[in-house]
Design brief:
Elements lengths: L22 H10 L5 H9 L3 E3 L6 E8 L7 H6 L3 E6 L5 E5 L5 E5 L6 E5 L2 H9 L1
Antiparallel strand pairs: 1-2, 2-3, 3-4, 4-5, 5-6
């Protein structure tokens, strides 16, 4: 699924800082979220989590999924019900899955606290991020 991103790929250096995600964590994610997108779990298994970016990190990919209340205040988190976060850009934007809408990828706008659909899949989101 992501073989083209390995080794001599122009994007390989952007993924070189990622660390493997423990198989127990992957199993836990799949157990907790049976509908977890396969492209997301495959990426964590194949590449891992951590800083995405060659020289400077562009994005931090978490080693699991966070509920909005783990990042946002109670009111903001309530408005984001059904969202599970998988990373952030270290500038206020978090990205995650909208579990109520076919696990589409959303970004949370730090200005209005709203989730906006940015990609149909994790793979699409990641490839856009790398380009």
């Amino acid at each position: 699924m992501f073989q083209d991103l390995k080794n001599n790929s122009p994007h390989g250096s952007m993924l070189s800082k990622l660390q493997p995600v423990a198989s127990s964590m992957l199993a836990h994610l799949n157990e907790c979220y049976p509908s977890l997108p396969e492209d997301y779990s495959a990426f964590l298994k194949e590449f891992g989590s951590g800083a995405v970016g060659a020289d400077q990190p562009l994005f931090i990919l978490y080693d699991g999924l966070l509920a909005p209340n783990e990042i946002y205040d109670a009111d903001s988190a309530t408005a984001l019900e059904g969202i599970l976060l998988f990373g952030d850009d270290m500038q206020g934007y978090c990205a995650g899955f909208d579990t109520d809408n076919a696990w589409q990828v959303v970004e949370i706008d730090p200005l209005d606290g709203q989730a906006h659909v940015v990609a149909a899949s994790f793979q699409e989101y990641l490839r856009d991020l790398l380009n």
